[in-house]
Protein 1
Amino acid sequence: MAKLKMSKKSTKVDMTAMCDMAFLLLSFFIMTATAKVPEALPVETPASTVQTKLPDENLGTLSIAKGKVFYGVTGRDIRSETLKRMGEKYKVPFSDADLTKFALIDGFGVDIRQMKQLIDMKNEERMKENVQPGIPYDSINNQLTDWIQISRNVTKELHEKDLDIAIKGDAKEEYPTVKKVLDILQKQSKNNFFLVTGLRSEDF
Amino acid sequence: MAELNTGDGGGKKGGGKVRSKKSNPGVDLTAMVDLAFLLITFFILTTTLSKPQSMNLALPDEPKIDDPIPPETPAWRTLTIVLGSGDKVLWYSGRTDGPPLDGPVVSGYGKSGIRDLILSKKKGVDDRNKSLGEPDLEKVGITVILKPSEKSNYKNFVDILDEMAITGVKKYATVDITPADIKFLETNNIY
């Protein structure tokens, strides 16, 4: 009988193709990923089962936490034009350098009179807690209404679209604060908006 | 394949022929593939999680003075849910100026709480409409009235809106709380 020979095949696998594919996917994900920007007001959103994606453009975000309200819009052109008009309305002058610098700020929460100091701050300083006290939104000094109204007008003029409003409320925020913000929007006949939520399964 | 040959045939010193080394051009790719997949996993997870979800909320227009008075919904077609403190809700059917048709009863949120009640109420209204021979069941379906109290928080509000989406209630409205509702909450110790 012939002897059984162990085949001397190598156990190694050619990894070239796998490596190619892995890096192709890797470059794809790196390119599509969007960097997470730090927020001035940390908000822990409640969860819901509804999954509507937020629009990427022409969106104004109202963050509500600890009784403070912060506001931010997408689009640099809209941001600087909004600030310009707010300055005119409240008689606070802003230079062109201020306007370009403001266009890079994602969200803010200060009185329009303190806006100049906020713009002059460094990024890290601005993001610190308790630096920004929130936009005034009570009946005596309702700057939030003006911010929303003016940014909506600007969006309509520059992009010919109505600004979508997203509300990003903290889960523990008391309802009266949310109600006040909803009332402000409703008074401007902005009745349709997005509530930013996390995701959960249907049997919670 | 996939390895570099080093020091081949070290024992044969002083041999006559000088042989060219049979060097293998392949490199070990295992570590590289490992790293690539690790990074892929990282990027997949971060990109899908960072996209925020949202839910739509539509509120009615501010009522104007010369608006026509809307037709009244019969009391048996309504369900009022009052959001109280401590993650509790209180529900009743009908009006507050007399004894309500059903309730008031304290309940919680979610599957073990108010969901079954909403579903059974919805079915009850649909059945009664069917026996009345209503042509459009959706139009005359149940109307849920949500009344968040000052002691409820934003999470409760989102939870109850989510409950509307899960149970498929088409008609619901957020309404300001009334003193009668607060009295209900107070007697049930959730205000």
Protein 2
Amino acid sequence: MKKIVALVGVALLFTAPLAHAQLGSATGTTTVSVTVGAEAALNITNSSTPLTATGTNFSNYTGSTGLTYFVRTTQSGGSGSVTLKVTTDFSPANGPSVGTPPSAGDKLAYTCSLSGVGTACSGSQTSSTTASTSVATFGADAHTVTFPGGDTATTAWTLTNDPKYKTGSYSATVTFTISAS
Amino acid sequence: MKKILALTALALLLAASLALAQLGSVGPTNNTLQVQVKPEASFTITTGTTTSLSSTGTNFNPYTGTTSFTYYVRTTKSGGSGSIQLKVTTDFVGGAGGTGPSAASTTDPLTYITTRTGTGTAVSDTASTTDYTKVVDFGEDNRSAKAGDSGSVAWSLVNDPQYETDTYSAVVTFTISAA
């Protein structure tokens, strides 16, 4: 007797899942890095500075310019400064002049005061149309004391009241520059 | 006696054959495969191991920089949730010992604005050294693309003149979760 025995076997071969693409992880880190360097900035508080004289006896014209400054100098060996220069002399002609005054000794002078970091210029300074002159100096590791408001400085102007000036309104431009290293 | 033995042997042989035939069945056999899809989440930073912050000009503009990432997420269809969060796990340290920014500062904070393309809601905040803060929030049934969704945090750090000149580094840890 022939017995046909059919053995049906089903074998399922389950292979391990193909290597699962790793799409990342539950955490990640990054190093946030910043290089803090020397910087300096200033704002002029009053864009126009009127100079006026009291009385009628040729007392000098006076006025003041305020500025706010921010500074950071290098920790070791750093320095900085605030300077000014008369970049446009008084006009129109026949009045005061920084570059070519009508009389010897006529000048636009100023004194400095600071409220904050730095050293103010010493004594009376004579402004110039050809060179920058000092308002404040900063040494190493100098930092603005007041932030975000900024430290403050004032230049108090004195302009000779020379009778040779013709009557009229005269204007000059003074440029302030701050630097830090 | 010999005939009885022969018949017995034959019977045994047939019985064995019948027994073997009972080890399987003939015809189609069904097998059910099952897979349980669960919430999952993973994350990769794509802008390298370092994010550099820099400032434009010399007038104390804030330091800014961007960390970008790719994320993969699947939250539970009903009632699921998840998030990407970050924490400043190591506060800023100056390489030359300078005194500078701190992510723990309340006056000069390290803030971030999040953008993302894909699933989830972007969250912008101030980074913290004590708590994880959210970057992206996931609701129920949030699923990213197979290739991943992308996002970024745009950092902003106050440029305080009081910082000493130096290079400072902090470590920010991101985590992603899904339920």
